[in-house]
Amino acid sequence: MALFALGNMLLKLRRRRLPRAVRAGWPTVVLAFVAVVVGLVGNVLLDPASVQVFSVYLAATGGIVAVMFLRLALLRGALRAVRGALERLAVLGVRMQGAVQASIQGIQSRSVVYFTPGDAPAQLNRAALYVLENEQTDRLAVVHLFEDPEGIPDQLATQLSTIDHLYPELRIDFIAVRGRFGPELISALSERLGVPRNYMFIGTPSASFGHRVEELGGVRLIL
Predict the structure, then answer these.
(1) Spatial contact of 109 and 137, defined as CB atoms under 8 Å apart
(2) Rounded to whole angstroms, how far apart are CA atoms 69 and 75?
(3) Distance in Å from the first CA to the final CA of the chain
(4) Which stretches does DSSP call E strand in the chain?
(5) Do 155 and 186 contact (CB within 8 A), yes or no?
(6) H/E element, 13
(7) How far is residue 165's CA from residue 22's CA, in Å, rounded to a whole number?
(8) Which spans in 110-180 are helix H?
(9) Count H helices, E strands: the chain?
(10) Contact criterion met (CB below 8 Å) for 165 and 153
(11) Alpha helices of 110-120 — where are they, by DSSP H?
């Protein structure tokens, strides 16, 4: 009611020429405004608790009105927030993708080592197929140990090259190492190649094999 009287005053000041059916003089409008204010103050003094209820309703109503007036600004702010969140998610997604790809490449680039005593094509082919079917890497390092260079099988490199061409998804490296097979040499090769000993495997040893499998530190017996 006080706002109604105040609005009437503003009409008299700003729109005095506006045609209207009913006119109220200044004394009437001022008296009505003062009476409403006095009544409001009296109600507050008589029942202060009602002010809290009124404040809650006033805040809720004012909030709804504010949202209506500020809806464009609020929507623009929400749009900026969504865009910012999506950009951060995109950056996070790129980083996670890079980390996953690096992990995959790290697993696939780690070689599996196979110790071969000779150049038997069937045995070498079985080693390649074992890696393709059972390992998560695409690299196979075939190691041949020798004490005399003349003891390296003549066809070993050729056979491995042929198998490498047969399976393009598998990279086969040939490594000839001077030394005698045993735990010390396996440990040295593991450190030199960066390949854990449980990533190394051998074929079934003969009766003259000079070591027990458990002495080899995790080297697997596969073929």
Answers:
(1) yes
(2) 12
(3) 98
(4) 112-115, 139-146, 171-178, 200-202, 220-221
(5) no
(6) helix 2-14
(7) 104
(8) 121-134, 156-166
(9) 6, 5
(10) no
(11) none
3-state secondary structure of 168: coil
Q: What does the block give as tokens for 36?
A: 């409403």
Assigned token pair, 145: 């140990």
Structure tokens at 104: 């995959």
The answer to whether 124 touches 155, Cβ cutoff 8 Å, is no
| Backbone φ, ψ for residue 222 (5° rounding) | -115, -55
Measured between alpha carbons, how far is 189 from 180 in angstroms, rounded to an integer? 12
Q: What angle do CA 92, 98, 100 make, to 5 degrees?
A: 100
Q: What gap in Å lies between CA 86 and CA 134, rounded to an integer?
A: 40
As a whole number of angstroms, the distance between CA 115 and CA 216 comes to 12
Write down how long the chain is: 223
CB-CB contact of 80 with 120 (8 Å): no
Output Rg (C-alpha) for the chain, integer angstroms.
44
pTM above 0.70, yes or no: no
The per-residue pLDDT for 46 is 81
Nearest to 164 by CA among 189, 196, 131, 135: 131
Distance, CA of 125 to CA of 166 (rounded, Å): 10
Per-10-residue mean pLDDT for the chain, 223 residues long?
Answer: 80 75 80 85 79 83 88 92 93 90 81 92 94 92 91 91 94 93 92 92 82 86 79
Residue 69 corresponds to which tokens in the numbers above? 């007036």
